[in-house]
Amino acid sequence: MNKNDLYALLFSNFRLNPTQGQNLVMRHLAAFLLSEKNNPLYLLKGYAGTGKTTVVGALVRVLPLLKMGFVLLAPTGRAAKVLQSYSGKAAYTIHRKIYRRRTSADGSIQLTIAPNNHKNTLFIVDEASMIGDNSTTSNMFASNNLLDDLMAYVQEGENCRLMLIGDHAQLPPVGTDSSPALNLAYLKATYDLTAAEFELDEVMRQELESGILYHATGLRLKLQQEQFEMPVFDRSGFADVVQVGGDDFEDLLNEAFGGKDFGKSVIICRSNRRANNFNQAVRARIFGYEEMISGGELLMVVKNNYYWASESESMGFIANGDMLVVNRISRIEEMYGFVFADADISFPDYPEENPIQVKLLLDTLLLETPSLGESDYRRLSEAIEEDYMDVTNRGQRKAKLRSNPYYNALQVKFAYALTCHKTQGGQWPIVFVDGGGLPADA
Q1: Would you say residue 312 has pLDDT above 60?
Q2: What torsion, rounded to 10 degrees, do the Cα atoms 305, 306, 312, 315 define?
Q3: How many whole angstroms separate alpha carbon 361 and alpha carbon 332?
Q4: pTM over 0.85
Q5: Which of 57, 118, 306, 435 has the least CB density, counted as fewest CB within 10 Å?
Q6: Per residue in 214-242, pLDDT tens?
Q7: What CATH number is given to the structural domain containing 324?
Q8: How many separate domains does the chain show?
Q9: How many Cβ atoms are within 10 Å of 259's Cβ, its own excluded?
């Protein structure tokens, strides 16, 4: 098949009238999929509403006709769930696909890059703006660099290629100023690959009546023009953007969260402090919870944890950002100056996974920092290590510490309200955006 034939095949599977930009992308993809150059990579960027998802839908319908496999990936479980919903195909988190756990002789656990046994396969990675190239995400990854590891994994396969999809107006990885996975010059300078890019900037006609898209586009323009004054939202004429407050707000929260359909709604906040306030309000006024934590709660993991995931399970480890539902609390106890709960939990974004028993560190629930601070973590470690002072060999004592369930307790926060970074890559039918004390006309 030549490039023109492949373009025609992509066009026939598009199912909508493509924009000029989408037409160009299909021509690019035809050349990319047939390229025999070294380690082909295609970077597709696009504004909200420009049809990146429509392009992916056409692509996954055509690839089997080329006898080419594909793997759909995203940085988080929620983003993978969204990718799966619009593609109609199974999607996975990057870490579940490319890492395997390895236990060393001293009991420490590291994640190594899994062997890539795929042949003639396209790896499609959505929400690529979230992929970091430093060690801020975890110290247990194979190279402390998720972008490095993804590149190494894909390039190990036979005739495999990579497509990165994202929007540079999205938030970059925490602790960075930009998204390296969306920077073509950086990718070409850092990795051995042949790469091209395109950015979709024409909003699809069927999206033009969306107030959410209208305001997202307005914010993008302000960023591009470096206009940082407070944005003003025009709510007139848009059914999907409303301002609420007072009793109306509580009624809407009751409607949104009362049924405990946790895929239905979220409150987005600009800080952990504001998220904590809303989480406590939802727990007390909507659910009537008075305890520190109760069965039925929705939580988010805020620090990677490999202790509680059995090596035989596909998940490998429990990742920062994973959502949990507490099925049952069997015990709450205070130990080593901290509060812990023994809980049975499920993973709503991974319905194929069985519930597991874990120990939760409850002190992180209302922290105004992303996770337990270094000084507190050291205090916990030292307190636990005192229990093993009868072990004179320091290496053996550290090994016992690393296998202690209190030391490995899951760090979690309530997840009815989340910060902007934590919601990135997700979709909800109802989204409340906290104005954070902004004036009524903002």
Answers
A1: no
A2: 40
A3: 10
A4: yes
A5: 435
A6: 888 888 888 888 887 776 777 777 888 88
A7: 2.30.30
A8: 2
A9: 10
Residues 183 and 313 in one domain: no
Name the nearest CA neighbour of 122 among 184, 189, 44.
44
Whether 104 is in a domain gets the answer yes
Q: Is the pLDDT of residue 361 over 80?
A: yes
Tokens, residue 95: 């870490």
What region does 175 belong to: left with phi over 0, alpha with psi -120 to 50, or beta? left
Question: Do 284 and 197 sit in the same domain of this protein?
Answer: no
CA separation for the pair 102, 110 (Å, rounded): 5
Whether residue 272 contacts residue 368, with contact meaning beta carbons closer than 8 Å, is answered with yes
Closest CA to 287 of 411, 412, 413, 416: 416
Mean pLDDT, the chain, whole residue set: 89
Q: Is the pLDDT score of 11 beyond 80?
A: yes
With a cut of 70, say whether residue 258 has pLDDT above it.
yes
- The count of other CB atoms within 10 Å of the CB of residue 18 is 20
Contact status, residue 433 vs residue 266, Cβ threshold 8 Å: no
How far, in Å, are 64, 107, 372, 410, 413 from residue 363 at the CA level? 49, 26, 8, 11, 9
3-state DSSP call for residue 4?
helix
In sequence order, what DSSP letters do the residues of 69-131 get, joined into one string? EEEEEESSHHHHHHHHHHHSS-EEEHHHHHEEEEE-TTS-EEEEEPP---BSEEEEESSGGG-
Give dist(CA 42, CA 187) in Å, integer.
11
pLDDT at 423 over 70: yes
- 189, 176, 170, 142: which is closest to 74 by C-alpha? 170
Tokens of 161: 């290629």
Domain that holds residue 404: 273-423
**Domain identity same for 190 and 289:** no
Most confident of 60-69, 257-266, 306-315, 395-404: 60-69
